[in-house]
Amino acid sequence: TGRGLSYSTNDPEHRLNVPAAKMSAFADEPDHFLNWLHACGHQYAGTDFVPRALFGQYVEHCLNQAAQTSPASLTRIYEQCIDVTPRVAQGRAGFTVRLNAGTRFRADAVVMATGTPRTDRSWAPTELLEADRFIPDGWHTCAKQDEYLTGDHILLVGTGLTMVDLALALAKDPDKVIHAVSRRGLIPKAHRPAAGQMESPNVPEHVSLIELRTLVADHLSKSTEQFGDWRPGFDSLRPITNELWQKLSLSDQQEFIDRDARRWDVLRHRMAPEAAAEIEQLQLSGRLIIHSAGVIGATELEHAINIRLTNGEQLNVQAVVDCTGAGPLIAEAGTGELLLANLLGTGTARAHQLGTGIDTDDAGQVLRRDGSANKNLLAIGPIRRGGLWETTAIPEIRVQAQELAADLLANAKLLPARSQTSHDLYGLKLTTNASAAGFYNEALARLLKVQSGVQESLELAIERDPEFGMAHLLMAVLGHEFDAPVDQQQHLQFALGSAQSATEREAAVIRTLAARINGTPGHQDLLQRYLREFPRDAVATSVAIPTIAFSGIYDVPEHAWSTVDYLAGAYGDDWWFNGLRAFTLQEQGRWEQAEKLATRSLAAEPEAGTSVHALSHVFYETGQHKTGLHWIDEWIDTCGRDAVHRAHFSWHAALHELALDDERAVLSRYHRQLAPPSVTGTRALVDSASLLWRCRVESVDVTIPSVRPVIEAAGEAARQPTTTFAAMHAAIAFAADSDSESLQHLSRYCSRGDVKMRQLAVPLINALSLYVAGQFDTCADQLAKLWPMAGRFGGSKAQMEVIQDTQIAALFHSGRGREAVDLLNERLDRRDHPRDRTRALEALLRNRTGPHQPHQ
């Protein structure tokens, strides 16, 4: 069940004509098909065109799974439906359904999901229709026709995707020559990797066919100018195609079918790249010959049939296969379309005026002969062609299916109507009401932009729906990852309690992130598995690839880089994910790519905090200090006014000022933007304390403020850091305060922590204690051993550089200036840094004389 004509093929050459990432059976779970492929062991990417047989298996799997888990029951009856008659019994409206074996039963609702109507053969001469060698259906042949298909010359009538399928199957015989004929001789275009995305053009209030042709031509020209390819422009028409179609007059629609439809289909229904390459090779080798003509005559010969074409050509072939596709609606008794014949004959249904399908209203209800709607007699898919233009492909059919099901269930008082169905910003279903979902999405948008107000929006979502599990989960995540002042465990328990009534996806992410929050062994692997099944979960993605969005206190390990790579296909050209990817690219030293991607993200969303963060690092690491300083200052004062981590962006600006040797500007910025009470918690350590320590070890001449208020503003984050990265910055804060006692306490605390705390944080704390004690020589040696492992602390390269800054200062103070200069020169080889250049030059001019006195 569920295979149908298209997906019952087992030929691996017959591929989907749409990338796997767009073939989910469920509109609200766009990666469902791709996740199923991976779960079955198929290593396809979202951009791959997979064999159609796999999609047939997938659809059948979805149906069987639903049948096993749904409270409803499913009964499959293998007979042909020949009539549906409206009836009223005991005041209840419904239908009598009649099958070809004489079975009858009652139904409250009927959905006609009959697939593509049979082909229109009005093009074929009578002598061809009556010939044995004419094959009306290349997929269902008899033994005699199979024998004819083994011949050396075969004619396929029609040059669309059906022709492509048949040609690829027949071409496995290397001696076969295939002819294909259509009036214009046009074959489908090939898919190409996405060159970009365009927005759909505005839909005019009124449009004629002439105006529509101009609109489409102009839009495709813009696409070609912008991307070098018309495809992004054509794809952006997809969401508005039916709206444009319904604005055309009936006469314009008919003219479009007569004059434009074939060219439209050539652009719209494309071949998989693999199929296109094979078709091109067949043409180049002369094994596939395309004829621009029609068929006007046929004469049977002893071992062939002679076909005469309108262009004067004659072909002797062993078989002629109809590949013309669907035509006008045919509803004649005895043709296999008896259901349609009876519905039209009794007036229960009427044909659309274009003759391409039956007439329905916007909700899919079948219209009677008098134009009234049959409540609960519904149609879905290609049979609605006419009222709709796009109604044959998965993206349209899955939406129709979801909407029809929601309406039927709403009428049965089982579920709310589809207007109440809620989704997050990336299309994932939310089990809540529309009001709560709206506040949740506001919170999610603010989180992804790295803006303030996330917690407040979540509180409003929970107020609208106290049992909204995803809102409680995100609140718990904020407490754990974002250091927000919330009761993590209370919100987590609410979330876990809601999982029983939530969707499968919601229950899975609640369990996954609960494991992370509770520190359950293996939680990282659990998170990776979850993301492979639900890659468009932005919250889970943010947790797996932590950047500034979660305080910057967690590292972005190298395994996260591969996570970004395999998630990329799920997000496409999304502004937030582009920023996330730009951040990981700059961590890998791929500055140019990171800059382009971050800039692209900010063009789409100027408030995108992660993209700003990535670009800030690019400017610093490539030595663009003046440009970076001007740019980030302007952003802080405009688009970044609501940024939740303005202090960190100010820290980036201060690094540029320090690099430019503008000491007064650094201290002025500290007092304006980085001094308590504007910063608290871990942020105070990571940004404010680390900046003051840099000023100290780099011997800034202006008066350096006391770091004690910063430590007090950090609170528990300084005394009991939860990560190695946070412990590193707590140690820096105490060192900046020359607080040896607190450093010793912190060392004892970290020695009871995990392996990273013991292997990294404790040696760093001890080295900083030596610096405070004036034992610079030993301090420099210990930091030299730690520096190769700096990446394991977490954080960015710019944040880790403070370790080497301290080592360089210790070398200067211990009289080992030559070694310090060598380290400075290594950094200068990588990027321009005026202050480093000045420090190296001054050391050389002093000719490496005596030890320096530490600056207090």
Q: What is the fold's blueprint, element by element?
A:
Blueprint lengths: L3 H4 L24 H8 L12 H18 L11 E9 L2 E8 L4 E4 L2 E3 L13 H4 L4 E2 L7 H6 L4 E5 L3 H10 L6 E6 L26 H19 L3 H5 L5 H7 L2 H19 L4 H12 L3 E5 L2 E6 L4 E5 L4 E4 L1 E4 L15 H9 L18 E3 L5 E7 L14 H18 L10 E2 L5 E2 L3 H16 L4 H11 L4 H13 L6 H11 L5 H14 L5 H11 L4 H7 L13 H14 L3 H13 L3 H14 L4 H13 L3 H13 L8 H14 L3 H12 L6 H17 L10 H7 L1 H4 L4 H13 L3 H12 L3 H18 L3 H11 L10 H17 L3 H14 L3 H12 L11
Parallel strand pairs: 4-14, 5-12, 6-7, 6-12, 7-8
Antiparallel strand pairs: 1-2, 2-3, 9-10, 10-11, 13-14, 15-16
Helix pairs in contact: 14-15, 15-16, 16-17, 16-18, 17-18, 18-19, 21-22, 22-23, 22-24, 23-24, 24-25, 24-26, 25-26, 26-27, 26-28, 28-29, 28-31, 28-35, 31-32, 31-33, 32-33, 33-34, 34-35, 35-36, 36-37
Class derived from helix and strand content: alpha/beta
Q: What order do the strands of the largest sheet run in, or round the barrel if closed?
A: 5-12-6-7-8
Number of distinct beta strands: 16
Global shape: elongated
Separation, N- and C-terminal Cα atoms: 80 Å
Largest sheet report: 5 strands, parallel
